[in-house]
Amino acid sequence: MIFYIPQDTTALALGSEAVARALQTAGIEPIRNGSRGLFWLEPLLEVATDQGRIAFGPVSAKDIPSIIDALESDPTSHDLYQGEVADIPYLKSQQRLTYARAGLGDPVCLDNYQSLNGFEGLKKALQMTGQQIVDQVKDSGLRGRGGAAFPAGIKWQTVHDAGKSTAADKEPCQKYIVCNADEGDSGTFADRLVMESDPYQLIEGMIIAGLAVGATQGYIYLRSEYPVAHKLLNIAIDRAIEANFLGENIQGSGKTFHLEVRLGAGAYICGEETSLLESLEGKRGMVRAKPPLPAIEGLFGMPTVVNNVLTLAAISSILEQGAANYQNFGMGRSRGTLAIQLAGNIKRGGLIELAFGVTLREVVEDYGQGTYSGRPIRAIQVGGPLGAFMPESQWDTPMDYEAFAAIKAMIGHGGIVVFDDTVDMAAQARFAMEFCVVESCGKCTPCRIGSVRGVEVIDRIVANENRDNNLILLHELCDTMEFGSLCAMGGMTPYPVRSALAHFPQDFLLRDSLLQDAAGASLQDSLLQDSLLQDAAGSSSRDAAGAAQGEN
Ligand SMILES: Cc1cc2nc3c(=O)[nH]c(=O)nc-3n(C[C@H](O)[C@H](O)[C@H](O)COP(=O)(O)O)c2cc1C
Ligand code: SF4
User: Fold this and answer.
1) What is the distance between the alpha carbons of residues 162 and 356, in angstroms, rounded to a whole number?
2) Which pLDDT score is estimated for 265?
3) Ligand 2: centre distance to CA 433 (Å)
4) Which of 4, 213, 225, 537 is surrounded by the fewest CB atoms within 10 Å?
């Protein structure tokens, strides 16, 4: 029998190290795999037996002796027995492309990766021209997974074509592939799961990106809060160099690609691509005005592909299985699969990879099984701290970039944070502004000053100070931030604020219950009227995806 116990951040946080030690004490040396993303079952102990690969979870060290006993007699009799891993409904019903290998074995074992079709996409890419690779990515319909959903193939084409004017006798210009692994959005962990469960997939995607656009150097900009990913990535890079998948003359092809990891310093804004490039260059993370786009003048002023971890991780399967296969998943212009991260007050949190088109309700009710507290769900924030709060009337919206944009919400990086009916939505709106105060890079006034004023105005509304005028002021302030900010940080902070006002107006009522009894009805009327006015005005606002896409 072979035992597997994960070594990724989530499993470690839930006690997997103690479980590994308990196994060692019992004379068993487990393979340290990565999580499959079923976080509600972590630490998930898997055992490869003659009857298949079975699972027990969530396990703690004290469960190990009884599990070993059960394995010798009847594993199904154990309380923590979950059946065959692949048959656990949460996992079985998923459509895994990017996470197909996650959890299967030691994430940094190169032989394991290759035995599971690893580097097959790269081998195909090495037989192709850069333009042919770019065409494959275009045909797949892959859109950036970092939040803005910009078509990856178009970005790659721009970098591929950049520097073409260089005279024939000159060296081709230096180009870069930069992987955005800053993953700062609330409730997100999909990038981390790739890097901790299947790091070679990201490395393979970056090498292919380099071949496609003619870049010989790549950097993974990793948030410093991910020490386990940092360690595993560096081990994987060293082994890929040893096996000649990285470095000079890759697999005898004459092609070169070098890759290094750089740690961020903990600023949310360093996830924004131009800020990230400034930080990579050793400067303070401040947003750059666009144009020029990073694809034309990026890292050190050279043409640069900046892509999210998931965008780059999807590349190997696109090359290996073909663009048409990827196109077969999804709906509308949202092709392929989405890494949905279920977090917050939820019973079964974890990673769910599904084709675009599944509804939010299916995700939170079927997979998530409702709230952890057992109370009714009241609001769901999708897309990180800049995403809208969605009331129940919107939960049947399919997860599709355009469908979400049409209701002024956004999918972003696919993070879903669930709140039960005890949530105070006025406090959440205030928090959105406060978050912007703390994380603003400070370059433009609407964001730097507007967010500070936003906190103050919400405080005055909640305290019923000159309420009607302050409501008008809050909407004007949101307009100023939305249309006047240099990047989506200030530009989208109004989304959570306005959605809270529009869908949960009662939470902005007076806190003083006596005053509330006297004034509540008229205030509620006023807020409801106000949200209707906002809905009516909504059609003239730029939509969420459009705003985010403006970044690229
Ligand atoms: C405030 C802010 C924070 C962002 N944070 C991230 C992040 O953590 N990770 C990420 O991939 N993209 C983030 N983005 C989006 C990036 O600017 C950029 O669009 C993305 O890295 C491009 O890669 P993609 O096309 O593969 O999505 C952020 C954007 C903004 C405005
Ligand atoms: S919107 Fe905020 S984060 Fe973006 S450039 Fe302006 S000040 Fe910086």
Assistant:
1) 32
2) 84
3) 13
4) 537
Sign of the alpha-carbon torsion through 456, 459, 461, 467: negative
pTM of the model: 0.93
CA-based nearest residue to 436, from 480, 375, 376, 378: 480
The tokens of 480 are what?
């100023």
Same fold, 331-420 and 425-549: no
Q: Which residues contact 472 (CB under 8 A, 6 or more apart)?
A: none
Map 361-430 to HEC letters: HHHHHHHCCCCCCCCCEEEEEECHHHCCEECHHHCCCECCHHHHHHCCCCCCCCEEEEEECCCCHHHHHH
Mean pLDDT of the 28-48 span: 98
**Counting atoms of ligand 1 from 1, which one is nearest the CA of 310?**
26
DSSP annotation of 288 reads P
Is 287's C-beta closer than 6 angstroms to any atom of ligand 2?
A: yes
CATH superfamily, domain 2-91, is: Glutaredoxin (3.40.30.10)
The separation between the first and the last C-alpha atoms of the chain, rounded to the nearest angstrom, is 50
Using a 6 Å cutoff on CB, does residue 303 contact ligand 2?
no
Contact status, residue 33 vs residue 105, Cβ threshold 8 Å: yes
Q: How far apart are CA 243 and CA 254, in angstroms?
A: 15
Name the class of domain 425-549.
mainly alpha
Domain 110-328: assigned CATH number: 3.40.50.11540
Give me the CATH topology for the region 331-420.
Ubiquitin-like (UB roll) (3.10.20)
Using one digit for the tens of pLDDT, what is the confidence trace for 536-547? Answer: 334 333 333 333
Ligand nearest to the CA of 552: 1
The CA-atom distances, in angstroms, between 333 and each of 38, 99, 156, 353 are 29, 22, 18, 18
Q: Where are the domains of the chain?
A: 2-91, 110-328, 331-420, 425-549
Q: Is the pLDDT of residue 522 over 80?
A: no
Q: Are strands 258-263 and 334-335 parallel, antiparallel or unpaired?
A: unpaired
